[in-house]
Write a structure and sequence with these properties.
alpha+beta, Alpha-Beta Plaits, Calcium-transporting ATPase, cytoplasmic transduction domain A, seven-stranded mixed β-sheet, six-stranded antiparallel β-sheet
Length: 700
């Protein structure tokens, strides 16, 4: 079964990688991914008890628990005992300075007892968890662990009577570890605050008044009341009242939206003023907010290639440095005149301290996690770290037209009469043919016919839909053809309006051309800005594909400055044209498709990254797309690409910085130009700086 588990007592990214690799090798475990930044285990396994036992073989203190429906407390899964750590570090630091200041006096006591008492007390206070962790690792027969390396290095320093350095290194390491935990903890809390939009309760209308209940217990059809200032707990339709709704937590849009009777509202929005009575339309698990929370919490389970590479790299990197340290300790004294083992052993110990890959293991997942969190704050849901990388590489964007670049709200703008038919008759016949369709154009025709009072002339005896062309219906007295120019030619109906401008629906009755209906669709206010911003982001190819006729496609494309477009495409035609676009542009970078997520599902699935526009609440969109934009603003596409680039830049800054510092200090250490102090900075200092840099991704 697939479950999501919280992890406790996992305080090392390297340890997380070891646990993850160990679990993946176990029978009965189909997949296992640990998100150290979120302290979450995504696992598909037969027996969770067996999984817990296997985890404790690697990390005995680590405990997992299946994620419940209720939100976690803020202090859960965070490094515990920060206050205790501060006190321990302070006491150890005082003893360390006593040892430094009174080193000669302490050393001159019988057998240097005072010196060793002060030194070992400070050493054990600051390094007890390191020593205990190293012991557990060695007991399992493993050598290449951060705590083992630190233990070998500091014990070796004590053995060559570098007491001050041994204690100082352990204290510095403890301080670095503490600051790193604190930075990661704060980043986690910042990201977790995104999930605090989950409603805590619903005011259910019952016979004896309002009853405060868990939103998960409310069923579709139930009536709830939302007071001013409260979160809307479930998706629904307003029955009574009007208000301003703040959807910023869902869409990133700060401007409140007016709503009144008949409007739909989304769970997680805030009722700014007024009292609303709402009929629930979806269960909590199917609501907008539930889908958002699930997407955000599960996103980092899909690791980017960079994360996967670093995990594999660490498995070879640390053992490689240990072998190098061993060579540094042994070979120069054996083969070079005048060299002593004590000098080269010390240098080898310095290399061991430097070698820890924690800066990479912690900061890279945290960077991606922050990027996903930052995108969510902007109303952009990215389903995985891997898609952030793809967004960063996008150089070609293909748009659907209707509902993506245009509003998708069609209105009848003109009825052109032919062969003596009245405009009301043309509308009436078209409405009969389109009555059973949910297509926006069909709905606009039916709505116009109702408004005109031209509705219904009898039952439809036969209904035939011609894909990509239109419909043919047979009533008791008429045969009605409603569709595009291709349908008129198919039925051999003479007409003289093949090239009518815009979206046009032709109507023929009993083989005679009755006229046509011109339908208008408005271009979105930010569509022009969206195209310009994409070009500023380095996107060199922008294409529009649509099922609308060529004339309508040309009008929109010319208005937006899109030179490459195709109209009159069926879903399979879109896929075919998209394939050819991929072939032409594959070598230039990633290719994104932006659509409504329902009719465009095949192309969304085929693209390097599929982006669903304004599809919140659409199961097809959320399931098929890799990125879901919670508003229908096409300008969010360029914003998503920008966030992907920024996140990738931060991740690579950390990789280059960490590896450069490690390489420099490894070289210095091998030639005796860096001591223990510099080594600890190269380890914990680099990790801390990388974590702080990674946290910038949250502010995308």
């Amino acid at each position: 079964m697939k479950v999501k588990c919280d992890i406790r007592n996992l305080d090392c990214a390297n340890c997380a990688a070891k646990v993850e690799n160990h679990l993946r090798k176990q029978p009965g475990v189909r997949s296992a991914t640990i998100d150290f930044a979120a302290l979450t285990l995504h696992i598909d396994a037969d027996d969770l008890e067996a999984v817990q036992k296997e985890i404790q073989k690697v990390e005995p203190d680590v405990v997992i628990s299946v994620r419940g429906d209720k939100k976690r407390e803020d202090n859960e899964n965070e490094p515990a005992g920060f206050n205790g750590q501060i006190i321990t570090i302070a006491v150890a630091a005082v003893l360390f300075f006593v040892q430094l200041i009174f080193e000669k006096q302490l050393h001159d006591t019988p057998w240097s007892i005072a010196e060793y008492v002060v030194t070992f007390t400070a050493y054990l206070l600051s390094g007890w968890n390191v020593l205990a962790g190293a012991f557990r690792t060695l007991r399992k027969g493993r050598m290449f662990d951060e705590k083992v390396l630190m233990t070998i290095a500091t014990v070796g320093a004590i053995a060559i009577h570098a007491l001050s350095e041994a204690v100082g290194v352990m204290i510095f390491y403890k301080i670095g570890e503490f600051l790193q935990d604190l930075a990661v903890s704060r980043s986690r809390r910042s990201i977790r605050s995104l999930l605090e939009i989950r409603p805590d309760y619903a005011n259910l209308k019952a016979e004896n008044g309002l009853e405060r209940v868990d939103p998960a217990t409310v069923k579709p059809g139930d009536i709830i009341v939302v007071k001013a200032g409260e979160k809307i707990p479930l998706d629904g339709e307003i029955l009574e009242g009007s208000s301003q709704i703040n959807t910023a937590a869902l869409t990133g849009e700060s401007v409140p939206v007016s709503c009144t009777v008949g409007d739909t509202v989304m769970a997680g929005s805030i009722n700014a003023n007024g009292l609303l009575t709402i009929r629930v339309t979806k269960t909590f698990s199917e609501s907008s907010i539930s889908k958002i929370l699930d997407l955000v919490e599960n996103a980092t389970a899909k690791k980017a290639k960079t994360e996967q590479f670093i995990t594999r790299f660490a498995q070879w990197y640390t053992p490689g440095v240990v072998v190098l340290a061993l060579a540094v300790a042994v070979l120069p004294p054996l083969f070079l005149d005048g060299q002593t083992f004590s000098t080269w052993v010390y240098r080898a110990l310095v290399l061991l301290v430097i070698s820890c890959p924690c800066a990479l293991m912690v900061s890279i997942p945290l960077g991606y996690f922050g990027g996903i969190g930052g995108a969510s704050r902007r109303g952009i849901l990215v389903k995985g770290s891997n898609f952030l990388d793809v967004l960063a590489s996008v150089k070609s964007v293909v748009f659907d037209k209707t509902g993506t670049l245009t509003e998708g709200v069609f209105l009848v703008q003109e009825v052109v009469q032919k062969n003596g038919y009245e405009a009301s008759d043309i509308l009436r016949f078209a409405a009969i043919a389109e009555a059973h369709s949910n297509h926006p154009i069909a709905l606009s025709i039916v709505a116009a016919a109702k408004q005109n009072g031209s509705v219904g002339i009898g039952d439809v005896l036969d209904h035939q839909e011609i894909p990509g062309q239109g419909v043919i219906v047979q009533t008791a007295s008429h045969r009605i053809c409603v569709g595009n120019d291709a349908l008129m030619h198919r039925e051999n109906i003479e007409h003289n309006s093949c090239e009518a401008e815009g979206t046009v629906v032709f109507v023929a009755v009993d083989g005679a051309f009755a006229g046509y209906i011109r339908i208008g669709d408005t271009i979105k206010s930010d569509a022009q800005e969206a195209i310009e911003n994409l070009r500023m982001e380095g996107v060199h190819t922008v294409v529009m594909l649509t099922g609308d006729n060529e004339s309508s496609a040309k009008t929109v494309a010319n208005t937006l400055g899109i030179s490459d477009y195709r109209g009159g495409l069926l879903p399979e035609g879109k896929v075919k044209h998209f394939e050819s676009i991929c072939e032409e542009n594959r070598h230039k970078g990633g290719i994104a498709f932006v659509g409504d997520g329902i009719n465009d599902a095949p192309v969304l699935a085929r693209a390097d990254v599929g982006i669903a526009m304004g599809a919140l609440g659409s199961d097809a969109a959320i399931e098929t797309a890799d990125v879901v934009l919670m508003t229908d603003h096409p300008s969010k596409v360029a914003e998503a690409i920008c966030i992907g680039k920024r996140t990738r830049a931060i991740v690579w800054q950390n990789i280059v910085f960490a590896l450069t510092v490690k390489a420099v200090f490894l070289t210095f250490g091998a030639f005796g130009l860096a001591g223990m102090w510099e080594a600890v900075f190269a380890d914990m200092g680099t990790a801390l700086i990388a974590v702080l840099n990674a946290s910038r991704a949250l502010k995308s």
